[in-house]
Each structure stands twice: as C-alpha cells, then as structure tokens.
Amino acid sequence: MIVRQPAEDSRRRGWRQLGDLALRLAVLIGAGLVWELYARAFPSLFIPPISAILANAWDQWVTGDWRALFIAPVFLEMLAASFRRLVPGLIYGAVSGIILGVALARVRFLGEMFSPLIQFFRAIPSSAKIPMFMVLLGIGDTMKIWVIGISVALPLLMNVMDGVRNVDPTLLAVAKVYRVGPWTRLWGVILPAAAPQTFAGLRIATMIALIVLVLSELTGAADGVGYYVLYAQRMFYVLDMWAGVLVLGFIGYLLNAVVSLAEVRILRWHRQSTSTAR
Amino acid sequence: MSTTSIESIDDVSPSVNVLLDVVGLGKTYGSGHGAVRALDDVTFSVEEGEFVCIVGPSGAGKTTLLRCLAGLMTPSQGQASIAGERISGPPRGLAMVFQDYGRSLMPWLKVVENVGFPLRNKGVSKAERRERSMAALESVGIANFAQKHPWQLSGGMQQRVAIARALAYQPQVLLMDEPFASVDAQTRSDLEDLTLRIQRQSGITTVFVTHDIDESVYLGDRVIVLTKPPTTVSQIFDVPLPRERDPISTKELPEFAHLRATVMRAIKTL
Amino acid sequence: MTAVMRAPDATLSRRLIQPRPVLLGVAGFAVFFLAIELLSRFSGLSEEILPRASTMILRTLELPAQESYVIAMGETLWASLVGLMIATLLAVPIGVILGTSGAAYRAMSALIEFMRPVPPVALIPPVLLIMGAGAEMKIFLVAYSTFWIILFNAIYGIRGVEPGLKDMARVFGTGRTKSLVVVSLPSAAPFIFTGVQIAATAAFIVTIGTEVLAGGSGGIGQWLMVNLNAVTRREWVFAGAFGAGLVGVAITGLLVIIGRIAFPWSVSNRERAE
Of these four, A46, A156, B150, C62, which has the most CB atoms within 10 Å of its CB? Predict the structure, then answer.
C-alpha cells in the first residue's frame, strides 16, 4: 500500500547521484580533452586549445586578493552589468506572464479577445523584436529589460493559460462544493494544479531570456558579458572571446539549475505522483 | 473511537422534519434539436438523519441530479431546497464525496491538509482545523497516514480521505456520488460498513447515489428508483431492515433478498 | 410529463453567436492598435519613436511589394530551412541510438544537459570570426542550435515508448532492430516531430538574430537594422517585424498541418478526434 521504504531508498539514491555526478564530470572533462586535442592537432588562430583559454581567463579574472574572493573587479562588473538586465527582465516577465495567464484563462471573454493578439506577438522572433524596441526605447538598459520581459512573458503566459484551463474540473467542483473563497481557490487549487505547466514554460522562458540578453548586448551595449565577447572578437582577442563564451554558457547552466532546483522542490508531488501512477 | 467532533449541526427547527426537498426538478443540456433532456421531473424529499439511496439504470442522470443538489448545476426547471432554503449555488453545510477519488484529492497536499482544505479561511483556527482533520481521519481509521500524500495510498484509502474531508466539514447533508464504484469488492464492503457506522454515529443526512442494487438496499433507509432519461422517480421503497446492519447476517435476511429482487425488477421493467 | 422545449429563436441566436471568438479576436487587435494610435497621437512622442498604428499596419500590408523585404525574407527562410534540415538529419539518428542504449544515454546526458542551456547566439562572434559573414555562418549556427532541441526530443521520444508495446513486439518474436523500426520509431515520431516544430521557431530566431548582428549576411535581421538606422524609415521596422510574425504564424500553422497528416496517431490528434 505504501510505496517505498524511505531510509534504504534515500541511501541508494545518494550513491546513484554520486555515480551520476562522477560520470557527468568525466564526460565533461572528456569533451574538454577532445577540444584540446583537436586544437593542438589542427592549430588555428581562431580555435585555441581550451587550456590556453582557461589559463588566459585565470590570469585576467583571478587575483591574489582574498578580500574580493580572488575575483578581479573587471569580471564582477561585467557580470553585474548583465545581471542588472537579466534579473529584472526575468522577474517582470515571469510575474506579468503568470498574472495575465491566469486572468486570460479564467475570464473567458478576455482569453478569446487577446489570445490571437498574443499568438501574433509571440510569433515575432525575439531577435526581430530587438530592433523594434530599439526604435521605441533606444539602446539603454530599459530596452533590454523590456525585450527580455516580453520575450519571457509571452511563452510563459501561453503555458500558464493552458495549465489553468486544464485544471481537473473535479478539483474545481470540490472547491465549489466546500465553498472555499476565491483566494483559496486561486492559491490552493488553480495555481498548484497549473504549476507543472508553469514550470515547463519558465524553463523555456529563461532560455529565451538569456538568448535575448546576449543578442541585445551584442547589438548595443557598452558593458556586460555579451559586449565583452563582441569587443574581444572585434579586437581579435581570441582567447578573451572564448572565455566570454564559456561564461555565457556557465550563466545558462546556472539559470537552468536554479529553475530545476525550484521545480524539484515545488513539484515534488507532481514527479512522484506521476511516477507512482504507473 | 472519538466521535464527538463529527456531530451534525442541528440548527433546523425540530418541527420541520424534511431537510432536503426536491420538487419537479428538470435539467436539459443544450438546446434546439441537439438538446438532451437528462432530468424530466424529479420529486422526492429526504428527512433529517435519513440515509437515502438513489439507484437507476446507467445513464439515468443520477450524477446530474446530485450535481443539481450540490449547487454545481442550475436546474432548468423545478427546484431543490435544503432546510427550506432554495439551492442556488453550493449550499452551506453540504459536503460531497465524488466518484473519482483519484481526481478529487489535491495531489500536492498531504492527507491531513486535504482533509482540512475546506476549513481554510472559514474562521476556523489552524489548531482547530488540524484537530478536526485528525479526528475525522481517526474516525475513518487512517489517522496514521495523515502525513502521506494521497497518491501514496490505495484507492480505498483515498476514498476514506475524501470521506474524512466531508466529515471534518461537519455538514448537515452528505452527498455521495457512486463513491465505491471503482474499488475492489472487499474494500467496497469495508467502506460500506464504514459509511453506515459513521452515518449512524453522526446522524448526517445522507444521499447516496449508486448503480449497485445490493449496495442501495444494504445501506439505505429508503431506496429511490429512477427511470431512464428523461428521468423521473419511478418508485420509492422503504427498507424494512433493522438499522444495525451486518454484511453477512443482514444480507441473508429474507427481507433483504426480497427487496433486492423487487428493486431489480423495478429497474428491469423500466 | 411536461417537457418544455426552449423557444426556437433562442437556438437561432445561439447559432449566430458562433463566430464570436473570431470577432472577439479581431476586437483584441483593434483595441491594441487603437491604443497605439492614440498613444502615438497624443502622448507627445515623436513619430520617429512611436509611429502611428495606422502607418504600421499600412506598411505591413505594403511589404509584399517591397522587393528588398521579399528577398530578405527568402534569404532568412532559406538559411533557417537548410540549417534545420541538417540538424534533423544529424540529430534524429543520433537521438535514436542514444535513446535505445541506456549506457550511451547516461554518458551523453551530461554533455547534452551542459550544452543545451548554452545560448546559441553566444557563438555568433566566434563563428563570425571563423566563417565570416554569409549564408554558411547562419546555416551553421541554426544547425548547431536546433540540433540539441531535436536530439533531446528524439532521445526522450524513444525512451518514452510504452514498454507494453515493446514487450508485445518481443512476444510476437520481433527482433530488436525490427522492433525499433516497427514499434519504437513510429511511436516516438510524433514526439520527435514536436521537437522539429520547436526547433523551427528557434531556427527563425537564431537566423534573424545572426543577421541583426552580422551586417553583410542579408536577411530580415539586416533589413530591420538598415531601416532602423534610416531615421525616416522607422515605421518599416515595425512593419518588418510584424511581417516576420505573420510568416512565423504561417510556418507554425504549416507544421501543425503536416503533423496532423503525417502522424494521425499522435496523442494530440487522438485527443482531437474524441
């Protein structure tokens, strides 16, 4: 009747996670080695060995100053500039996407009225939205935050709408029969039930946010990681350019990890309930 | 077993014995040529503290009837009232156990939280909510699963959680919509006895919809037989069995067999 | 028994309300563009910043007559399509192999999980350096970025095949390879196709993004930037973006129709049939 024995299970899971981690590391190191060997076998000005890229990054970004956690100010400033655009854009986009998604799904009239318009704007590639917003808002941070926000909100909104529309009618009937108020119905039934799809949307949205951030920093900026990469490319600082690309990859990985972590914590019931249903 | 916390609310004046009154209830889905007349003209009443079973052939609009009583659906004609008050929207003091236990419990809440869910924002303190939830779980015999999630339990257990949720709500009227249709036979028998025991202890007026004639005769004080759609009340039978029932001895009584046959005949000849 | 039927005129009016969603959708567009028009006229913003909505719409309708736009759209679509095809041809077989073999999947999943979140546009500068501006660079970037999306869906499509189906095939004596062809591939195909659909959207984004950045690579992106820099042609930026949106809608619609015809057994099609 009760599905699992928790103690034994968690220990076994611990070992497996450790094994997975080791495998992951091994594969990544292997991939690095392939790059290294390729770059050494076919020397090219533009594809340097990864060891050279890392050594260069170490020289530039790591200092002997323990008070700054050994990180050079240039590196922090570069990251800060990017996060100053990314984080507000993500937050505004996510909050407005969720609110609008719930509203459009619950108020049928609004949903029918604005779904086609939203579909249309979602279909405009985010990269084509950047020039549009450059006309409207110039090339400053406001433009970047807006484009990120809208690029996040639109796909998220569609997912939230879908999730809210597909809330099991039985659960809504339960809430109705037991006369729970609109607040409890929203926070206790609708939002949790739509959470899996909301997270799926959020996952896509964060990836899009990063793409838009990089694009917008490549098109018009004087700081940030994207600008750093572009500047290095123009100056033929090939090692710096690749280091910047690696940093962008790392940010992507980090964002993905944050969303996954939140998802695992919040949606534990969902993962387990769907896996035990089988 | 403590039963103090699941007493029914007695705010009906004692002179009025009829608690649930259904008069000429009708429900049509759609309109024009495609209209489906599910309920035609359903009239019956349920007295306070009574256990009434509603049976009928499949597709007889049993669920539609129950949803009208729960205020989840507006009837096209006629009306239903609880304690003299016309039902429009879910009435106060009414609880319902749904057929599909797997979908009527919130998978993201623990069992005890599910039971306490209807008491949120109802002026019930957190401590009292918990106490009432635990008492209800106790009375359905699954207090030790309070911290589990519903999907970790078997179907029968999940339906117990749904029953506990209804009890913790302390309703005047309990509606049950084919609650045991999808559990195995043994569990079903256990749940029937559990339902009976709780009903006897709490005195909650219960309307129990089923397609199982055995179940209806075994549980009910009265059995209401519905016709095929467009549905009306075909016959109403009083159950001449002692109120204390037992799955073995009650079912071997000649009265049981006789009534069971009569009800079956009534449905067959519809 | 008094079965009261509804008055016939009530049903008639209900039938007439059928086009309601379409009308409401049109109303949604009207409300939005009216708001833009009013904002443009009365907010004091110059038309170089916020052109009149009426102008935007007019210019959008004039796009097919703009030879430069049509050519640019052709360049963008071509690069997207070729890149997407290369990615599909590579990702589907690799994904099927990885999805079938547990060990290979475990080993590769780390790399995939690591590469997938890397924003493909971050590679624009290095690829620009290596390949120079032009169609090849766009195609490479599109192929690279869509490869991971399709690969991911192919792996999960194959791994998600109903075990009962595979057991059934084994019970009837179907060999491993044949079972892959007759059971796994058909049941994974709709999921893989979904990956291609997502990838198509991504391809469009990446192509235009590359064009926005790398002058001299043609396409819609460059067309938009040229008009952005010509102060008198600002409204064309909006029109051009709207045009890209309309083409995007058309591509999505086309892929949905292809999916319905090619994979009638997919879950979404079965749901529709119910």
Answer: A156
Nearest to B32 among C2, C4, C11 (CB): C11
Here the tokens at position B42 are 């359903």
Tell me the residues of B at the C interface, defined by beta carbons under 8 Å apart: 26, 28, 31-33, 35, 37, 40-41, 76-77, 230, 232
Mean pLDDT across the stretch B50-70? 90
List helix spans (H) across chain B.
62-69, 101-104, 111-116, 126-139, 155-168, 185-202, 213-219, 254-268
Average confidence (pLDDT) over B94-115: 92
| Chain C contact present for A131, CB below 8 A | yes
C105 pLDDT higher than 90: no
Domain interval for residue A65: 48-277
The reply to whether residue C209 touches residue A125, judged by beta carbons under 8 angstroms, is yes
**Same domain for A26 and A3:** yes
Give me the residues of A, 73-102, that contact C with CB < 8 A. Answer: none
Q: Beta-carbon neighbour count of residue C94 at 10 Å?
A: 17
Contact criterion met (CB < 8 Å) for C5 and B230: no
pLDDT in tens, C43-65: 878 878 888 888 899 999 988 98
- Rounded to two decimals, the ipTM of the complex is 0.85
B36 Cβ partners below 8 Å, 6+ apart?
B28, B29, B30, B229
CATH code of the domain in which C192 resides: 1.10.3720.10
CATH number of the domain within which A117 lies: 1.10.3720.10
Enumerate domains of chain B plus CATH numbers: 16-93+172-181+204-270 (3.40.50.300), 94-170 (no CATH)
Q: Which domain does C198 fall in, by range?
A: 55-273
Instruction: Tell whether A191 lies on the interface with B, counting CB pairs under 8 A.
Output: no
Residues 139..198 of C with a Cβ closer than 8 Å to A: which?
A: none
- Tell whether A16 and A58 lie within a shared domain: no
What sign results for the dihedral spanned by CA atoms C260, C264, C268, C269? positive
B72 touches chain A (CB under 8 A): yes
Q: Give C121's DSSP letter.
A: G
